[in-house]
Structure formats: structure tokens, C-alpha cells
Amino acid sequence: MKSLLITPAGNRYEAPAGISGLEAVKNLVAGGKEKALQEAICLKIDGRLVDLATKLPEGEVFLVTPDSPEALEVLRHSTSHIMAQAVTRLFPEAKLGIGPAIADGFYYDFDLPQPLTPEDLEKIEAEMRKIIKEDYPITRSELSREKALAFFREKGEKYKVELVEELPEGTISFYRQAEFADLCRGPHLPSTGYPAVFKLMSVAGAYWRGDSARPMLQRIYGTAFFHRED
């Protein structure tokens, strides 16, 4: 069975179904195909974005690269995880809320005992640069609901526990980069090394889940791009 990998330029390459997109790209480049294939950050299968490490099905698979319309959302989502990793390194007492990509960037909510200052944002940015330089692989795994609850309870991540408790029975996806792991549907970049430029813009208060009866968290807003000229 064959997959047909289609680049944003419309070039088509055959690859064996059942291997990962990452492996297929490496094999094609090693075989002398266009090096632009190496720019792939994720896949689009049946209209849905999935990780580059996803096993290829039979049929058409579209490669998403930094110039694809969907790419910035993936980059910014992964950069929110990089920021969360940096925050938990600098502030081990931080409890994690949620951290999605949004229209012009990303945010992540944190429960911290002290207000974040502009100087703190500079320290977080510096730690993010270290994480980006280290280029940690970002890997997906799945846990049962019970194991996911045990994982977050052991870490004292009460907000994550609440989110998992509301999920139906079944497997739950996690993404890990070095020591940092988060509950997430994805997809994400193959590694932490992709953001060429990013900026943490501001901190604002945000009630947990938008409910004024719930704790007030600190929301850090930021943005990121693949290319400095962007």
C-alpha cells in the first residue's frame, strides 16, 4: 500500500503506508528528492492536522510547512508549551491551566503565589531561548484516564486533574519535551527548535474557565513566527 505525499507546491511523492511521516520525509530526502521536504512540520490527513510522526495511511497526505496557512497556529501552540516549560523551571510552584494558540499568538494560564513582573517575563523569555536552542524532540503518548489522573495528582496539578475528570473513559493524549509533559490534543512541532522569533507581550488576570467564582490565574500572552522577517 502506498501513501501519496503532496507538498504545498503540489509536488507528489510516493511513500509506503504504515511508516511515519517523519520517516518518509527522511527517506525521500536521503534518496535525492527535494530538500524542501525537510521543512515539513506536520501532516494534513482528511482535512485534519496531525503530528509529523503519525503513521501514513493509504492515499493522499498533505505536508504542512512553515509557509502553509495552518503552520503559524501549530508553531504558536508549541511555543505556548515552551513557555509553560520555562515557567515551571523558573517557578516550580506554578500550577498549569490551559495554553492554546489564538488569532495573533498564544497564551498560557498559571496559578502562581506572586504576581509576575516585566522582569519575570524577561527571565521566562531567556529560559525559552535555552529550550529552543536545545531543540528537544516533542513526542506524543497516550495514557488511560486513570493513569492521566494519577500523573497529575502526583504533581499537584489540580487544574489538569479537573480537566481530565471531565473527559470520557478512554485514552488521553500527552505531549512531552524533555522534563515537561502536558495534556494536549496537538498537533505539535517535531521539536522545540523551530521558533525563530517570539515575544511575551503582557500578563493579565484570567478567571479559571472564565468563572468569576473560580481562582484568578495569571495569563501570559505572547506571539511567535518561523522567520525573523515575519
Task: Report the sheet with the most strands, covering strand number, pairing sense and barrel closure.
Answer: 5 strands, mixed
Structural class by sheet pairing and helices: alpha+beta
Number of structural units classed as domains: 2
- Rounded to the nearest angstrom, the radius of gyration is 19 Å
Distance between the termini: 40 Å
Q: Quick check: average pLDDT? A: 96
**Order of strands across the biggest sheet?**
2-1-5-3-4
Multimerization status: single chain
The tally of beta strands, per DSSP, is: 13
Q: Any overview of this molecule?
A:
The protein is of the alpha+beta class and 230 residues long. The chain folds into 2 domains: 2-64, Ubiquitin-like (UB roll) (Roll), CATH 3.10.20; 71-225, 2-Layer Sandwich (Threonyl-tRNA Synthetase, Chain A, domain 2), CATH 3.30.980.10. Helix content is 29%, strand content 32%. The protein is built from 5 helices and 13 strands. It has a 5-stranded mixed sheet, with helices on one face. Strands 6, 7, 8, 12 and 13 form a 5-stranded antiparallel sheet that branches. Strands 9-10-11 form a 3-stranded antiparallel sheet. Strand 1 and strand 2 (12-16) form a beta hairpin. Helix 2 (71-90) packs across helix 3. The N and C termini lie far apart (40 Å). The model has no long low-confidence stretch (mean pLDDT 96).
